[in-house]
Amino acid sequence: MNDHFHTHHRIRFGAFEMDLATGELWKSGRKLKLTGQPFSVLAILLERPGEVISREQFQRRLWPDTFVDVDHNLNTAINKIRETLGDSKERPRFVETLSRRGYRFIASIESADPQTRAPAAHAALRSGDRMQNSVPACAEDGFWIAVLPFKLSDADADLADSAMALIEEIVTGLSRFSYLRVISLSSTSQYAGRSLDVRAAGKELGARYVIEGSLRHAGPRVRIATQLVDCNSGAHLWAETYDRPFSSQAAFDLCDDVVPQIVSTIADTHGVLPRSMSEVLRTRDPSSLSPYEAVLRSFAHFQRVSADEHAPARAALERAVQQAPHYPDAWAMLSLIYKEEFTHRFNLLPDPLGRALAAAQRALEGAPSNHLACHALASVEFFRKQLDAFRIATERAVDLNPMDGFTLAYLGFLTAYGGDWERGGALSAKARSLNPHHPGWYWFVPCFDAYRKGEYKTSLEFAHKVRMPGFWRTQLAIAASCGQLGQQAAANEALQILLMQRPEIAQLSRQELAIWWQPDLVEHLIAGLRKAGLEV
Q1: What whole-number distance in Å separates Cα of residue 257 and Cα of residue 244?
Q2: Residue whose C-alpha is closest to residue 532's, from 478, 477, 491, 496
Q3: CA–CA separation, 121 vs 123, rounded Å?
């Protein structure tokens, strides 16, 4: 049993608070009906967050001296818990079922005792991936995020319920990203209905970043305005407005439509927060970064994709896993960085895929439900040509965090390049819809899909939408498409740039292209490059 658990009588997770002393469960200030065995089962899961609790362990705790149908009683209790929390077996946010092994609580938890103040309260207890992701001095890292109650245009009860649902879903969505430190709703609810200075509220909460918003109701429509503020500088980092149909019956549809866009735009690797956080750390000596900061620093490479960004990211992460060997995010990002040595020849050292696989496996050992770890494993399995393992890890990564546009986009184009263009195209399109400010490479799937179909003009149009002239695949697509179209001047220009970026492509074209694409498309691309003037 977790001894630290006994020092806290109120435990918070997501929008919920559980009072162990009174046997009560609350959600956003509203008492829920969860008593008896379901409450006891949830309490046991919360004692050891992130650990698998077997049916035998539940039996010893709950029914030690009586003969009962343990399977039936436990299944009934777990189903009641999921019903009360709005959870599901297929896509768990709180309670995960492990076949033939037991159950595990996978969400982030913290102390909600009144005497414990933020931000230390938020670091007090961690669960699942978050517990194992905890690293020294996380509060000092200073990158906490708070979501304040949204302002309302009137006192309409339906509007208030929709605002609360939006905030709960945004917090839950942000919490899916293990590298974000999200302050709980119970701490931010004190600001509901108050006129406040955002920077002052952030300071009180211990948050560097604050998300605030408003809902305005006009007839059958609602306008949702949101913005992200850096409380250190006062800068508005992002703002967006969403106009949607509105009715009390469609509140869930509103959340399902808007929340993923807000969360992905803010939180994923190419989102506003990782860009801001990594930019703060880019000028720091990698050896001075904490393990958590090393993870944030590594995002700068994926936002720029260059050897110059790759080297300090790798150095910081290698140091991070030495300092915090049980930190899954650091292992997962290190795996992705090692993989970049193989795919882009950045700062290449021996056996990059072997090192990438070992790092991904270390990440998953520490946190089987960490979506970054699954993303890393899927990536390395693709380049190892283990496509069955790749597909399994891809589906797991997407299921764990369907709001991560980066995961959907990257694993989507690998899925397409592996031969499943329909599934890969769907993942790629979903990623583009999640974050309208996505990087240009999200267009590569429709670009190369059109090329393989012989739709060269369409392929060229998508290649120009990429808007990454310094990236070799952009020039490859332009040169091959223009070659096929007979646009010789443009084809030759793109080819010359490609040869400057990847000079080995002339001698090793099949070998280089086979890293990414299936043999039929490799030959098709070489045919286009020949027409562009490449001597193969």
Answers
A1: 9
A2: 491
A3: 5
Q: Which amino acid is at 358?
A: A
What are all long-range contacts of 465-468, with beta carbons under 8 Å and residues at least 24 apart?
Answer: 465/440, 466/440, 466/441, 467/440, 468/439, 468/440, 468/441
Question: What pLDDT was estimated at residue 525?
Answer: 96
Location of structure tokens 């070992």: 358
Report percent pLDDT > 70 for the chain.
91
Residue 29: its pLDDT value, please?
Answer: 65
In angstroms, the Cα distances linking 171 to 13, 148, 257 are 11, 10, 15
* Tally of CB atoms within 10 A around 195: 6
Question: Is residue 96 within 8 Å of residue 76, measured between CB atoms?
Answer: no
Residue 429 pLDDT grade (very low, low, confident, very high; cuts 50, 70, 90): very high
Model pLDDT for residues 282-315, shown as the tens digit of each residue: 999 999 999 999 999 999 999 888 899 999 999 9
The pTM (predicted TM-score) of the whole model is 0.77
Residue position matching structure tokens 């777990």? 78
User: Are residues 296 and 281 in contact, defined by beta-carbon separation less than 8 angstroms?
Assistant: yes
Q: What is the DSSP string of 449-470?
A: HHHHTT-HHHHHHHHHHH--TT
Which spans in 268-368 are helix H? 272-281, 291-304, 307-323, 328-344, 352-366
Type of residue at 318: E
Identify which of 59, 173, 45, 148 has the alpha carbon closest to the alpha carbon of residue 104.
45
- Residues 226 and 147: their CA atoms lie apart, in Å, by 10
Task: Give the whole-angstrom CA distance, residue 371 versus residue 410.
Answer: 13
Q: Could you report the per-residue pLDDT of 496-524, keeping only the tens digit for each?
A: 999 998 888 888 788 889 999 999 999 99
Residue bearing the bigger pLDDT, 531 or 437: 531
Collect all residues with Cβ–Cβ distance below 8 Å to 210 and sequence separation of at least 6. 145, 146, 147, 148, 198, 199, 201, 202, 228, 229, 231
8 Å CB contact between 164 and 87:
no
The SS3 call for residue 282 is coil
Exposure of 152 in the CB half-sphere (CA atoms within 13 A): 17
Q: In DSSP terms, which residues pair with 98 in a beta bridge?
A: 102
DSSP 108: -
- 96-109: per-residue pLDDT in tens? 888 778 898 888 77
